Amino acid sequence: MEEELLRIFDRNRNAIGTAPRHEVHKLGHWHETFHCWFISREEEVDYIYLQIRSDSKKDYPGLLDITAAGHLLANETVQDGVREVKEELGIGVSFEELVSLGIIDYSVTTGELIDRELANVYVYNCTLGFDDFAIQTEEVSGVVRAKFKPFSELWLGELEEIQIEGFEINKAGKRVSFNKIVTKNNFVLHEQSYYEAIIRGIDKIIRASY
């Protein structure tokens, strides 16, 4: 199988060429990704949705992460990023339905993985039930949601733990309910500044909808 080619950038976000995915993470090249956060409002309560990464994933197995996200290939535009939502979650969304939070750049090093992303971040205000999700189990083992206010307080240092609810696919391939108390340690290691940026952006979207 041919390895994915990613477009790479300098520190000023100027494109400088392409590189295979393993090299991008080994050498720490800046590269483009697509992030889509799902939110919803139910009975006057705002929620944010998270995926549970598959236990078979090489990086961050079993941790909570962005609702849907992935790399943009060298031949793709930002608009092509919506394929990640369909592939991972089985939810068809159009690019026009998304609200942009702009490009958030961040750098995280974990062991030999150097992840320097120019993340094109979007929000999808959904009206979905958990039964609407048809997840790609090679990538995702479940979908959960948290109340947005406690989620914000967790990442702003005001709470140490929050409750999440949803479903996961167990080892027998069955969909089972998921309800758990989690801390920051249960999340993928994105920079603190990244979480703060998406919280500010989503909060503006929520306030504008009142």
What does the model show?
- By secondary structure, the chain is α+β, with helices and mostly antiparallel strands.
- The chain has one domain: Nucleoside Triphosphate Pyrophosphohydrolase, CATH 3.90.79.
- The protein contains four helices and eleven strands.
- It has helices spanning 21-27, 82-89, 148-155, 192-208, and strands at 5-9, 15-20, 30-42, 45-53, 64-65, 68-71, 99-110, 113-125, 140-147, 162-169, 175-182.
- Strands 1, 2, 3, 4, 5, 6, 7, 8, 9, 10 and 11 form an eleven-stranded mixed beta sheet that branches.
- Strand 1 and strand 2 (15-20) form a beta hairpin.
- The chain starts with a strand and ends with a helix.
Compact summary:
The chain is α+β, with helices and mostly antiparallel strands. 19% of the residues lie in helices and 42% in strands.
Strand content: 35-45%
The stretches of 5 or more residues where confidence is low (pLDDT under 50) are none
Number of domains: 1
- Tally of DSSP helical segments: 4
- What is the N-to-C succession of helices and strands? EEHEEEEHEEEHEEH
Instruction: Please estimate the helix content.
Output: 10-25%
Radius of gyration: 17 Å
**CATH level-two architecture:** Alpha-Beta Complex
Number of beta strands: 11
Which class do the helix and strand fractions yield?
Answer: alpha+beta
Per CATH, the class reads Alpha Beta
> Which superfamily, in CATH terms, is the homologous superfamily?
Nucleoside Triphosphate Pyrophosphohydrolase
Distance between the termini: 49 Å
